[in-house]
Amino acid sequence: MEIGLIALAAALAIGLPAAATAWAQGRIGPAAAASLAEKPELSTTAIILIAIPETMVILGFVVAVMILLRSGGGAG
Amino acid sequence: MIVQMLRVRLAGPRALLDAVLAVVQDLGVLHLDHPKAPEAPRVDGSVRKEKRHLQRLVADLESALVELGEATNPPAPFIPGDWPETIRRARRIRRHAIRLHRARADLSDERVLLLRYREFFEAFESLVGHELTWPDGQAFYVVLRAGAGGAVAELKRSLESAVSGEVELLARELSSGEQAVLILVSPGAASKVAKLLSESRVEELPAPAGIGEKNLLRALPALKARLAAIPAELEAVDREREALRAKEGPWLEALRAWVRDRLLLLDARGKVLAGEHLFILEGWLPRPRFGELEGKVREAFGPQVVVEVVGEETWAAADAPVTLKNPPLFRPFEVVTRMLPLPKYGTIDPTPFVAVFFPAFFGLMLGDVGYGLMLAALAIVLRIKSKPDTTLRAVSQVGGACAATSIGFGFLFGELFGSLGHRLGLHPVFNREEAIIPFLGLSVALGGVHVLLGLVLAAVSAWRRGHKREAMGRGVAFTMVVLTALSLLAAFEVLPSALFTPFVVAVLVAFPVLIILEGLVALIELLSTFGHILSYARIMALGTASLMLAVVANQLVGAMGSVVVGVVFALLFHLVNFAIGVFSPTIHALRLHYVEFFGKFFSPGGAAYEPLGHWHRSPESS
């Protein structure tokens, strides 16, 4: 039961930020593509804007790993 | 580094203006700027008219050269002579080149079209003998689309029910899956069948235009003959184009270079303050090149033309143009810096720091000997394929540096295509598969160093441009981040815990100083700085994800039942992981630089240093 809860906590820790990141990128992506069609010189800004929400899922991944490791469920 | 500039002024008799500009153009170091005067320089009407003519001529030349192709060797210089004849000749060549280009395009299009018909020819050809069932009858040729399985049978049924005994239908399947169908009809039933086909929206395959024959059967011999004749015609057009290029190409290129040079000179004239007797021109040049300009002008005009420094350069000169000069080892990384607008004059060029941190972050994320070697091979191929001084060459060099760090960190982590390295006896000094938390600590610590370096550069840049309050504010922010990090280390007993209180007190003392120097916005900036440092956790996250994917790829070998199938799947998986492993760290290393690092000190908006010189074809376009 406890292992299941730990696994669920880790899954939520990465799953929710992943969904949030996907939602944010799903909105930024089309806007960036539309901007690039008119101004190709904005490509750097577009890359940065698309990469910004990934911080959420990356930090979610870190938290998930820490949940697993602290509970003894991971490799370390 | 941003090169230090000097603003200089040249003054002399109006009659010498063109000669002075020619000397300046030959030297190619002076970025002309409008002299600081109550009135902007006026461009006289004759200059505007000449510019219009030359712009039209250069458009003609570019168009002709696009059609003919550029020569590989630099042409001999053009010597201006009879202008009307020169313009006529250029236009004649352009018209000829365009005519040849169109002829070639038309022939190629025709060939492609006829090739599409070839299979139809062959299918119908084998059906031709059947047409004699009704010597005076009519033949219809149709192609039914692929996948319409029962369409032929259905068509046959419909036709027979409409004109029983007066129609014969023969079909062959084409390689595309389409059905080539020949419908032979008696003279009396022809109009009925045509109507039926039209109502069913079954279209007869027409003969290609230009053959002069609408019926495909009768057009077949002409089509085949045309297809056989086209290659020879194409060759003739190519020969004519090659001859035109050999004869006129060098002349066109020389003329283009001359005209473009002249246009640059006329543009420069628009930036010169010229009266009836005197002219004054001002501009920027790199400090070490001043002696060269002064020497050349004195040598050519003696004391008639004066060269003087308008004012000693200061980093605060807002209108000075910007040019970057970095050691050869760092120069390829300008490609990363140049993806953003140039930094303002007097600020910091981040290229040397990018050259150190970008490959380091990339290597930490990829960190695999095998993938590093694959990337090195890719970088070598790019280098071979690219020309010197092009973006592609710079990318290949950056790729090479990233490959080197990936291999280096790969040895440190003991990784060769993931865990395969351990099995082959590669001993990790730092096993990131197990030491996930220490790897996270290392990533965040690196982030701390990078962000703090950004704060130091911000302070230096602000101080150099005379913004002392801002510089001090950045300094206090730097101190607060360091003190906070030390407090945390003391709290977690990495440092003696007795130091915790003094560090916290120091932070509390520094905080109001920061607010006084930079206002309340400093609080938000400070919090975002901590967020930026934590953002470097992505180095650990991406590194671990890349390693895990490689481990999964290796496990596929044993999981597939057959070793051969497992190895094939594992190789494919490694290939995918390599693609992700190159793309993702590149994007995230770029992001860490542009957002977390550059955000602290980088001020975009510098004007590019564009000295008056001779026109050169860009290496990217050749």
Topology at a glance:
The complex is a heterodimer of chains A (about 80) and B (about 625).
Chain A: H1 2-38, H2 43-51, H3 54-70
Chain B: E1 5-13, H1 17-27, E2 31-33, H2 45-68, H3 83-125, E3 138-144, H4 151-162, E4 167-173, E5 179-185, H5 190-199, H6 216-269, E6 273-274, E7 278-286, H7 290-301, E8 306-311, H8 334-337, H9 351-366, H10 369-385, H11 391-413, H12 420-423, H13 436-464, H14 468-491, H15 500-518, H16 521-535, H17 537-559, H18 563-601
Antiparallel strand pairs in B: 1-7, 1-8, 2-7, 3-5, 4-5, 6-7
Helix pairs in contact in B: 1-7, 2-3, 2-6, 3-6, 9-11, 9-17, 9-18, 10-11, 13-14, 13-16, 13-17, 13-18, 14-15, 17-18
Brief summary:
The complex is a heterodimer of chains A (76) and B (622). Chain A has 76 residues and is mainly alpha-helical.
Describe the protein:
The complex is a heterodimer of chains A (76) and B (622). Chain A is mainly α. In chain A, 83% of the residues lie in helices and 0% in strands. The mean pLDDT of chain B is 84. Chain B has helices at 17-27, 45-68, 83-125, 151-162, 190-199, 216-269, 290-301, 334-337, 351-366, 369-385, 391-413, 420-423, 436-464, 468-491, 500-518, 521-535, 537-559, 563-601, and strands spanning 5-13, 31-33, 138-144, 167-173, 179-185, 273-274, 278-286, 306-311. Chain B starts with a strand and ends in a 21-residue tail after the last helix. Chain B has 622 residues and is α+β, with helices and mostly antiparallel strands. The chains are: A mainly alpha (76), B alpha+beta (622). Chains A and B meet through helix 2 and helix 3 of A and helix 13, helix 17 and helix 18 of B.
